[in-house]
Specification:
mainly alpha; Growth Hormone, Chain: A; 79% helix; 0% strand; disordered C terminus
């Protein structure tokens, strides 16, 4: 079918986004032929460059114990800690879900135009990138627990401020405040869980962060539908203000939680770290070895602090270049495929597709949220059986097909509401089945210890900036390219994402950290050892 393009008004953000995705997509796919890892000879540097959380946190002692006595079990104390800290990621999901409905009433109450709607919706994701960038260094200085407390306070202030806003600019200001809290929580929640959890359950527990994002989105949709019958000015204020409830619960719950044992060891507080492992019911016979392993890795990390940003960005070695392309690339494609457009603008898109009642659009959005939550569980249960890449193949190709259906639902002059609902549900299902949760698994696996802090910051920054750009430009893109054209563009990006996974991303299922290290470093391991010593 033909698409009509109107260039009477060209939004600069839209042009920037189109150029950005085309350039990065081509660069990443072309890089695939050079960076596809081959299994090299053993690397003598393999034990000095950890590729994830596990060995960094004392994996050797835990794995040895598990071979002899079985897996370390999760007790009530550890489950409580994971549940409480996961509220931090739930806050992001709640904001995404609730803003999708609240913006309909805010638009009417404040008489907003498209660029103002995009700024209100997308500003949080852009600012959360700033919060994420500073979260790591701040938590290294004052501790994981205190940093999560700060995030809870910031989010609470932002939620209350948004609810009390009297005009567009004050709403935007408190939206920015909220974004800082979201960014800090998004980094600290998986970090805290990873540093406290047994290695055998760490991957699953870290992935729960994505589950809680989806639960938060669903809660936001439920609140939207529940309050939609109220006066519009009161409804959106309650929708946004209720976001303070989970952040207050997080603030209260964090007082009953311990500090991260790894951070305690890094501050020479081994006795306190030991007590944390005792409360988590780690077997007493492995705790001394576990603490020794952590101390060894902490000392190694301190010795390697001389690595600079220039080593990561300007003149990377083969190991760093390969892992950065994989880690940053998968974070880029997770957001560039249009997830934020799907969840933030679902009610508005459905209204444009022919659903006349606001409550009808919100009810359809609730169905989208339910599908998104249900589909997050299969990859968590089966990722170790079927591997990362199989889920990513299904996810990227499925999202491409769903976007094509969305494009058809707006063609030609009679939008098809039911097809629009089905295609959005199909998109979030395929997103949750693959690239949604597996992005975070891969990101935690690929980066070597020597650059992990900086690399994680860069990957999260790219993720949040891409997310914010999509949210900021979707309405303008729909006006520029027509809704069908915008969805075709996302379908093309999803196909590039499939090519990126096929040519660039390695399968990490069943590989030890040492094997991953050998894969990425190749024959240059010895050279890199000399470089960073």
């Amino acid at each position: 079918f033909s698409l009509s393009f109107s260039f009477s008004f060209v939004d600069p953000l839209s042009l920037v986004f189109v150029c950005l995705v085309l350039f990065l997509s081509v660069v990443m796919v072309v890089s695939g032929g050079e960076t596809e890892p081959q299994t090299p000879p053993p690397n003598p540097f393999e034990k000095k460059l950890s590729t994830g959380f596990e060995e960094d946190l004392g994996e050797k002692s835990e794995l040895l114990h598990e071979k002899r006595h079985g897996k370390i079990k999760i007790n009530g104390f550890l489950a409580m800690c994971v549940a409480v800290v996961s509220i931090a990621t739930c806050l992001l999901g709640y904001d995404i879900g609730v803003m999708s409905g609240a913006i309909l009433f805010i638009e009417e109450d404040f008489d907003l135009v498209d660029w103002q709607i995009e700024l209100v919706v997308g500003s949080l994701n852009l600012v959360s990138a700033v919060g994420a960038l500073f979260a790591g260094p701040l938590s290294d200085r004052i501790g994981r627990r205190k940093t999560i407390l700060i995030a809870a306070v910031i989010f609470t202030l932002g939620a209350v401020g948004m609810a009390l806003a009297l005009e567009f600019w004050s709403l935007l200001a408190f939206r920015i405040v909220t974004g800082v809290g979201v960014g800090v929580g998004l980094v600290l929640s998986p970090l805290y869980v990873a540093e406290l959890s047994p290695s055998s359950y760490r991957g699953m527990l870290v992935s729960l962060g994505e589950v809680m994002v989806n639960v938060g989105i669903l809660l936001g949709y439920i609140v939207n539908l529940s309050l939609s019958g109220l006066d519009h000015s009161l409804a959106w204020r309650l929708m946004l203000g209720l976001g303070a409830v989970p952040s207050v619960l997080l603030f209260i719950g964090i007082w009953f939680m311990p500090e991260s044992p790894r951070w305690l060891v890094s501050k020479d507080r081994k006795d306190e770290a030991e007590q944390v492992f005792v409360r988590a019911e780690y077997p007493p016979e492995i705790i001394p070895e576990l603490l020794a392993d952590i101390e060894e890795m902490v000392n190694l990390a301190k010795q390697q602090d001389n690595v600079k940003w220039a080593d990561v960005l300007c003149c990377p070695t083969k190991l760093i270049r390969t892992t950065m392309i994989i880690g940053v690339g998968i974070n880029f494609f997770q957001q560039a495929t249009g997830c934020e457009a799907a969840v933030y603008y679902t009610p508005k898109v459905l209204e444009d597709a022919g659903i006349e009642s606001t409550q009808g659009a919100l009810l359809a959005s609730l169905c989208v949220g339910v599908v998104k939550v249900i589909c997050i569980f299969p990859p968590l249960w089966y990722v170790e059986r079927f591997g990362r890449k199989h889920f990513l193949y299904v996810s990227t190709l499925g999202m491409m097909f769903a976007h094509c259906l969305s494009a058809v639902s707006f063609y030609p002059d009679e939008p098809m509401a039911y097809l629009a609902i089905f295609s959005i549900c199909l998109f979030v299902a395929f997103f949750s089945l693959g690239i949604g949760p597996i992005n975070w698994v891969l990101t935690s696996e690929v980066f070597p210890l020597v650059i992990r802090g900086r690399a994680m910051s860069i990957a999260t920054l790219v993720n949040r900036l891409t997310s914010g750009t999509v949210a900021l430009s979707f309405l303008s893109l729909s006006e520029l390219l027509t809704p069908s054209g915008a969805y075709i563009m996302f379908a093309v990006i999803s196909f590039f994402g499939f090519l990126f996974v096929f040519f660039v991303v390695p399968e990490t299922k069943g590989k030890s950290l040492e094997e991953l290290e050998q894969m990425f470093a190749g024959d240059e391991g010895e050279k890199e050892e000399e470089t960073y010593q």
